[in-house]
């Protein structure tokens, strides 16, 4: 959106698209070549709380909420689990911009996960 169009918008100025913020935040904590994460498994509860303006600096803080064993369909299938993370995205003023939860599919060792929570 150009400057004139942005001035007439709800925000009165240019702002960054919310889904770009989610993608940029993922870039801060995803390293495809390192660790046990196999894939993104889902996203929920997404709320955009403050607009992000061009030039803002964002940070992402992840807090592990739950680890769940994913049932193996066969002995040959790779042992996996699902980790649910709370994500808070903040700006350079520590204002919360967005909150959501993500699920990651991860390789697991038996000692890494509780045995009483199982998902299909």
TrEMBL record:
Keywords: Hydrolase, Membrane, Transmembrane, Transmembrane helix
Entry-linked InterPro entries: HotDog_dom_sf, MaoC-like_dom, MCH/BMMD
Residues that span the membrane, as ranges: 20-43
SUPFAM superfamilies per record: Thioesterase/thiol ester dehydrase-isomerase (SSF54637)
Domain MaoC-like: 1-84
Domain of life: Bacteria
GO-annotated molecular function: hydrolase activity
Pfam families registered for this protein in UniProt: MaoC_dehydratas
UniProt-recorded name of the protein: Oxepin-CoA hydrolase / 3-oxo-5,6-dehydrosuberyl-CoA semialdehyde dehydrogenase
Phylogenetic classification of the source organism: Bacteria, Pseudomonadati, Pseudomonadota, Gammaproteobacteria, Enterobacterales
